[in-house]
Amino acid sequence: MFKYLPHTEHDIKEMLQVIGVSDINDLFHEIPQSLKNLDLDVPSSHSELEIHRRFDELAAKNRKLIPFVGAGAYDHYTPSIIRHLIERQEYLTSYTPYQPEISQGTLQYIFEFQSIVTELTGMDVANASMYDGATATAEAMFMATGAKRRNKILVSSTVNPNIKQVIATYAHYRGLEVAFVAEQDGITDAADFLAKNDKDVAGLIVQSPNFYGIIEDVGQFRAPLDETKGLLIVNSDLASLSILKTPGEQGADIAVGDAQSLGVPLQYGGPYIGYLATTSKLMRKMPGRICGVTRDADGKRAFVLTLQAREQHIRRDKANSNICSNQSLLALFVTIYSTVMGKQGVVEAQQKSHDATAHLAQRLIATGQFEAAFDRPFFKDVALRSKLSPEVIESTCIEHGFLGPLWLGRYDDNLADVFLFGATEKRTKDEIDAFVGIWEVR
Amino acid sequence: MYYDKLIFEISTPGRKGYSLPDTGIPAAPIDASLQRTAPAELPEVSELETLRHYTNVSFKNFGIEKGFYPLGSCTMKYNPKINQDIANREAFQIHPLQPASTVQGMLEIYYETQRILSELSGLDTFTLNSYAGAHGELVGLMIMKKYHEDRGDLKRTKVIVPDSAHGTNPASATVAGFESVEVKSNKDGTVHIEDLKQVLGDDIAGIMLTNPNTVGMFEKDILAIAELVHEAGGLLYYDGANLNPLLGVARPGDMGFDIMHINLHKTFSTPHGGGGPGSGPVGVKAFLADYLPRPVVKKENDQYTIDYDAPDAIGQISHFFGNIGVVVKAYTYLLTVGKEHFSEVGKFSVLNANYIKESLKDLYELPIDDICKHEFVFNGLKDKSAHVTTLDVAKRLLDYDVHPPTIYFPLVFKEALMIEPPETESKQTIDQFIAIMRKVAEEAKTDPDLVKGAPYTTVVRRLDEAQAARNPIVKYRDLT
Asked: Which of A398, B91, B252, B414 lies 20 to 30 Å (CA to CA) from residue A303?
């Protein structure tokens, strides 16, 4: 017997009798014998105690560093109650809410999540989540090319390079054309955009705060896109929109990005959660699940997945997206974070992150080892130049227990002396002092 | 009492549920011209109100620890608690940009998980970067496309998808830039070989198969199918949604599949989470290994490294390394089950399915009366005279605290009722389910209106789904 398998010898015998075979292996009679001689080189069964020992060993091989970098993964504080709530079996172990009568819990929090995303983005409608910000942006591209029946998308060079890579990969296989709009001094080059924008372009993807942390004026692209009937797609860190001008206020057609910074732990890159929001006009072109309100047979308010005619399980090869289950439990995570931190707390965490990043930048510049790469307003990432080599910076930081900045030369030869720093509300003054201290003594 | 409040409806201006420390760092105001004009109207509630609200909301959900989920093609097995405890460990809450030298434990988990998946599946190597089953399909098809492109074989624009396939298969084919060609199934849902031969040609990039297929039948001609497809220059893709019954019994790689995905949230028990996060690792044979997406985790002289360049990769399909938190749970499960018990997982799931099938086939129409694998399909009630549909049966099951089976899928049967009882369910639970199914069949005969009006005991009754689509109310502001 094994703890996850309740079948006794007696049960097996009785069940086989009902089925009418004498041996459990007879249930696999049609599988060719040549396929069945397995001798697997896999670990032996571990008891719980052995599991803990094994993971103690693995944990000891990690060295957890204090991050002074964000670049798409932000070390924000997670209030205790969130884990307790999302680990309730009703949330953790439930299935996709296709049977609404016994899934009102999931459907309701999806509705609340959609409400929170629309509040933060200023858009009309949001879906029930996407895998991550990068794939959400690629899906927004499909939405634009599908809605406009145009094959080409413009992407600003100031978008996070990982997101650009994912967009390029998705576009390549689908047969779409991606053209990059140049950057000028840390922001999207508006002149280059105007030169490249025409009636073959389905839309423009811009990011704000962009990869360098700089807050861009994305509203300036609205009018020229109206002239060519293209869509404005704005990628933003969702939490930052609690303070910054929203995509909705700036005329975006689609708002996308990652919602990880609403308290989702770093967990080495995932699971995080993407979001996608749009206008009422484009609602029926959205990918993913959408929850709506209706009534039950007794007239009671209830929630249900709606507009499913867009989705893969109905449209099959005519669907514009293949997305199915994605990050539902993370949508709950973000919803609870936005609730317990609430109207004031989300803003406070983001403002303190900005304060910490600004203080960090100022202090680093004061050491004489760094200077601002761009003279522009930034949010919780900041790009600094240095003559120090990336190897020296990385190893020195690790030596002191810190995760230092992301070296941007990794993505662009023109940025070989630029480093992307970041800080959140979790960084204390002492930590910043200690981190800056490394560079002062040099 | 029924709790029907939305979080916004218990919000009180000025109330707080959090505290953050005063960091002593000077404030750095953001220019007003860059700020939003009005604050986002997020809830304002206390900590206890938040707990009460989401606890009460949770009561409106079913879950595996409450009852049985005989959901076809979904493998709703028990989700061990230890998996969660391990994934929550503080040592794994690491920034994804940490250099490889400082995350050897993380990378070992990644590498070892992909190694065990390779061993269990007969493929040679896996990426764990793909976020879910459908994402895995897309990545697998990108690999298929790049393989043909790199050989200069550019006319292979079509992918064969059987009519019984999961809806994501043809949708993924479209998103990967392929055209899908549907092949009809035999009466038992297996591939019609003559039909397949008709469509195989130099425009075919490959075929997507689920084996056992969605009616629970093992594709017994799989070796012949593989040979035909390979001879025609195509590749075989294995949709891993139905891998559970083959665990430790037979391997897709040995059957001739070149590419596959695995749903860790199904076969390897990381929870479904109400619709994610899942994880959909993609495995390939060695000749396709260089195509796996960036970043690639490698092992070199007992050191784990991260290859961000991988020049032949299809590209990048995730921001970082996929849902690693989910992978940690799957690795815990793989170690717990271990060599000794993998084949029991497969065998007991098949035992459970056949036992239910034989115990109910006198009352429910069984279109394919043969040994099934982990799941099988009834085509509604045998006695259809009272016009009680599969939907009615499903809704009536809710009154007996059972999650309904998958309904109206696969599309090959009009009244499909697709039942999959995972191996973690005991004979007692299954006997109880059989008794309930028999009772519902009896009710359908004696009191059909009772069944047609179900459910009665759930927090809400049948919903007006058309109304929701006609007049979409999709956020709190739409209600006020």
From this structure: B414
Structure tokens at A23: 């041996």
Nearest CA to B235 out of B268, B211, B259, B218 is that of B259
3-state secondary structure of A113: helix
Task: Kindly report the nearest CA distance between residue A221 and chain B, in angstroms.
Answer: 16
Q: Do B61 and A43 touch (CB under 8 A)?
A: no
**Over 60: is that where the pLDDT of A142 sits?**
yes
Q: Is B374 on the interface with A (CB under 8 A)?
A: no
Q: Which residue of A has its CA nearest to B60?
A: A105
Indicate the helix (H) or strand (E) that contains B55: helix B47-58
Question: Stretch B393-400: mean pLDDT, rounded?
Answer: 97
- Contact at CB, B60 and A104, closer than 8 angstroms: yes
Whether residue A28 is predicted with pLDDT greater than 80 in this model: the reply is yes
- Which of B308, B299, B334 is CA-nearest to residue B111? B299
Q: Which of B33, B46, B57 to mutate to test the interface with A (most CBs of A within 10 A)?
A: B57
**From CA B480, how far away is CA B470, in angstroms rounded?**
18
CB neighbourhood size of A324 (10 A): 25
pLDDT class of A318 with cuts at 50, 70, 90: confident
Residue of B nearest to A28 (CA): B373
d(Cα B238, Cα B229) in Å, to the nearest integer?
A: 13
Are A325 and B473 inside 8 Å of each other by CB?
A: no
Number of Cβ within 10 Å of residue B405's Cβ equals 28
- Smallest Cβ–Cβ distance between B99 and the set A166, A311, A398 belongs to A398
Question: Which residues on adjacent β-strands are paired with residue B237?
Answer: B208, B259
> Which chain A residues contact residue B321 at CB under 8 A?
268-270
Strand partners, B418: B377, B406
CA distances from B338 to A41, A382, B245, B344, B454 (A): 10, 47, 16, 11, 43
Whether the pLDDT of residue A442 is over 70: the answer is: no
List, for residues B368-396, the tens digit of each pLDDT value.
999 999 999 999 999 999 999 999 999 99
Number of cross-chain residue pairs from A and B with Cβ atoms under 8 Å apart: 667
**Domains of chain B, earliest start first:** 81-336 (3.40.640.10), 343-466 (3.90.1150.10)
* A positions 179-208 inside 8 Å of B (CB): none
Alpha helices in A20-103 (DSSP H): 48-60, 80-86, 89-92
- Whether this prediction's pTM lies above 0.90 is answered by yes
pLDDT in tens, B256-280: 999 999 999 999 999 999 999 999 9
Q: How many CB atoms lie within 10 A of CB A22?
A: 10
Q: By percentage, how much of chain A surpasses pLDDT 70?
A: 100
Domains, chain A, ordered by start: 1-29 (no CATH), 66-75+342-440 (3.90.1150.10), 80-340 (3.40.640.10)
A366 touches chain B (CB under 8 A): no
Q: Per-residue pLDDT tens for B14-35? A: 999 999 999 899 999 999 999 9
Mean pLDDT to the nearest integer, B408-427 = 95
Chain A interface mutation, best of B3, B41, B61, B217, highest count of A Cβ atoms under 10 Å: B61
* Interface contact A92-B271, CB threshold 8 A: yes
Whether B261 contacts B280, CB under 8 Å: yes
DSSP A294-345: EEBTTS-EEEEE--GGGSHHHHGGG-S----S--HHHHHHHHHHHHHTHHHH
Contact B274 A91 (CB under 8 A): yes
B-chain residues within 8 Å CB-CB of A45?
Answer: 335-341
Q: Could B18 and A345 be called an inter-chain contact, meaning their C-beta atoms sit closer than 8 Å?
A: yes
Cβ <8 Å between A268 and B94: yes
Q: Do B132 and A325 touch (CB under 8 A)?
A: yes
